[in-house]
Design goal:
CATH topology of chain B: Growth Hormone, Chain: A
Helix content of chain B: over 70%
Distance between the termini of chain A: 52 Å
Radius of gyration of chain A: 20 Å
Largest sheet of chain B: none
Number of domains of chain A: 2
Structural class of chain A: alpha+beta
Shape of chain B: globular
CATH class of chain B: Mainly Alpha
Largest interface: A-B, 20 and 21 residues
Radius of gyration of chain B: 21 Å
Order of helices and strands of chain A: HHEHEEEEEEE
Strand order of the largest sheet of chain A: 1-2-3-4-5-6-7-8
Strand content of chain B: under 5%
CATH class of the largest domain in chain A: Mainly Beta
Number of domains of chain B: 1
CATH topology of the largest domain in chain A: Lipocalin
Strand content of chain A: 35-45%
CATH architecture of the largest domain in chain A: Beta Barrel
Shape of chain A: elongated
Number of helices of chain A: 3
Number of strands of chain B: 0
Helix content of chain A: 10-25%
Number of helices of chain B: 9
Number of strands of chain A: 8
Oligomer: heterodimer
């Protein structure tokens, strides 16, 4: 067989299989649509000196308030991702609408606030039941905060 | 800079390496700022591919596999053009891949400026195109310079720098002009890549997506430099046919007649 023909067949086979497989899979943009309830806030990493078995990784309500005070997601407990890239957040007497976008390979969640402020969260896990977001906190508290959500409605 | 692949001078390699590394550094930083994805280093993408497979994130794994494949395809494309057209016209064979790269980057820049809605599919496709462009550039520089210059391969470059630094602990190696030339070349590529990244990060704040046009300008410099040199040489040949017939690197000799 002619070498050019072999290359062409190889290319068509790889590309064909690639796009066939891709068409069967749900993209993170489709996966994220629905209503999510915040279940926990934890430290993902802490100083090694402070780590021992008794250390509680859960972020206390007071620290959570301090961390999220200036964030778009402040006091939001239920997040509803719409198809039109709209995000509705509900919480303690709070209700607001934002825009969401996914970046990278679908691993970065970008939230556009009302005052043109933009925040980025790393999507660590996203499946039909659970979503885990990480974000770096710019405070005296060192480390990454891990936010876990459970799906309420698809 | 790009017209010769045999008997290349050290200066030509430094010029080619510095300019292309500078543009690669710019492209990489811009893609991280806009898309949160690297476009000129593939080692990291292999690590991400492995991670996504182990996590069972098949969609993301396929996306990353596609990006790596496009980098591969870029290298393939540039080399296939070079090996097929080099004998006919070396300058043209080496310029076509850079023109392709410029077209890809122009397309990305223009699309972002006028049409980008920040959807995931757009991000994935634009990153693909940038990886293809970087593949073209890396393949071309490696081919032209006989693998002496690889502008986006910073892992290998840092490895070589580390090895050379250790070799220079011996006086014999420090006095070796070949090793010193290699050190200078690697250092020039590394500094240009870094400088390109820093510049992109700084100027992005003021000129936004126009950074892509600046990268294209630097690539045009690469093509334009050789075009100018070839044109000038041909002009001088026409004006002074006898004086210019001295072979490069040879001292003129009087004939016996």
């Amino acid at each position: 067989m002619n070498i050019k023909f072999r290359y062409l067949i190889g290319f068509i086979l790889v590309a064909g299989n690639y796009f066939t497989l891709l068409s069967f899979l749900q993209s993170p943009e489709e996966n994220i649509i629905g209503e999510w309830k915040e279940v926990s806030w934890e430290y993902e990493k802490i100083d090694s000196l402070a780590s021992d078995d008794s250390f509680d990784y859960m972020v206390t309500d007071h620290i959570k308030q301090q961390i999220s005070r200036n964030l778009i997601i402040h006091e939001a407990e239920v997040w509803r991702f719409g198809k039109n890239e709209m995000l509705e957040m509900k919480g303690n007497g709070l209700s607001k609408s934002l825009h969401w976008k996914l970046k990278g390979r679908g691993n970065i969640l970008q939230l556009n606030g009302t005052h043109k402020n933009i925040e980025h969260y790393l999507i660590q896990e996203l499946n039909s039941e659970r979503m885990i977001l990480h974000f770096n906190i710019d405070m005296q508290v060192r480390g990454i905060v891990k936010m876990t959500f459970e799906r309420i409605n698809a | 800079m790009i017209s010769n692949h045999i008997g290349r001078t050290h200066r030509e390699n430094i010029q080619l390496g510095s300019l292309t590394a500078f543009s690669a550094g710019m492209v990489n930083v811009i893609s991280v700022i806009i898309f949160f994805a690297f476009t000129s280093n593939v080692t990291g993408h292999y690590a991400i591919l492995a991670q996504e497979i182990s996590n069972g994130n098949w969609y993301q794994a396929l996306v990353v596999f596609g990006w790596i494949s496009l980098f591969f395809l870029g290298n393939f494309t540039s080399n296939i053009i070079v090996i097929n057209f080099r004998k006919t016209n070396a300058y043209l064979a080496h310029s076509i891949p850079i023109v392709l790269e410029i077209l890809c980057l122009l397309a990305v820049g223009t699309y972002i400026q006028f049409y980008y809605k920040e959807t995931l599919i757009e991000t994935e496709l634009l990153v693909s195109m940038m990886l293809f462009a970087m593949g073209i550039q890396n393949g071309l520089t490696a081919t032209i310079s006989n693998s002496a210059v690889k502008t986006t391969h910073l892992t290998g470059l840092t490895t070589d720098l580390g090895i050379l630094a250790s070799l220079f602990t011996k006086k014999k190696n420090r006095q070796n002009p070949e090793l010193r030339r290699k050190w200078n070349l690697l250092l020039a590529i590394m500094s240009s890549y870094l400088l390109g990244g820093v510049c992109a990060g700084l100027i992005y704040l003021t000129i936004n997506y126009n950074v892509f046009y600046i990268v294209c300008f630097f690539l045009l410099l690469v093509i334009g430099h050789d075009f100018y040199r070839i044109k000038m040489n041909s002009l001088l040949h026409k004006k002074q046919p006898f004086y210019r017939k001295v072979l490069k690197g040879q001292t003129p000799q009087l004939s016996n007649n």
